[in-house]
Specification:
Layout lengths: L11 E6 L2 H10 L3 E4 L12 H11 L6 E8 L18 E5 L6 H17 L6 E7 L5 H6 L2 H13 L4 E5 L8 H4 L2 H13 L3 E4 L5 H9 L6 E4 L15 H15 L3
Parallel strand pairs: 1-2, 1-8, 2-3, 3-4, 4-5, 5-6, 6-7, 7-8
Amino acid sequence: MTKTDKNRPMSGLLVSVKNNSEALAAIQGGTDILDIKAPDHGPLGMADAETIQNILDICEQHQSLKTSAALGELEEWSVSRQIPIYLDRLNYLKVGPGNSENLDDWFDKLVQLKTRFQHAGIHHPRWIAVLYADQKPGTILFQSQQPQLEELAIRLKEHNFAGLLIDTAQKQNGSLRTHFNGDQLGKLTTVLQSQQLLCSLAGRLTFQDIETLIKQSILPNYYAVRSAVCNGGDRQSNVECKKVQELKRQLKQTTGKQ
């Protein structure tokens, strides 16, 4: 992890977009990762093939920009569903835990899907595991003791995952901070980063939420947002360049990023 001369970790910014105009706004605003999703299809709704490929075409003009895409939920990927080869153009892939009831069930299904993608020729993107703070098995993880967090981090590392994203499934029920406190999120961040895994925090985080977390020295690799940089704070509205710029500026100032 890159650090400033003050030896303070830097948190990057991930912005989720739904179309070309939003992609341009997020890029011009300075996002570090451009995430492609369909927000009207759930917390990790997958955009259609044309949308994903059109946005990736735009991103090719920005070689330092990393890209990710939401793939929906685990149960949406039945064994008969064809895996599109264009997904190999992305840097990261992520899929929600869906109706998984416990951590072992979720992790086994996730590894099986990751293996299927590899067999289908998807080798370039790395996988980000996802848990929701407001439903199982994410709630189980945070009710556990730190050794279980450490065990999960080791398993992610062993299976070559890039990291873990903590999100929320029900966006109307408050932000991530409604469900997990600073101590819990701090432990998670520390455990993941100790294993050289990326830690990303999402879940309807506002500017104030992010400022509060940073003041608590919670510095994930990425803060992931959509509603915070949309018109009126509405995730169904449009991403605005000036709001991305403002949040990027806030991260630079509060984490010491140059």
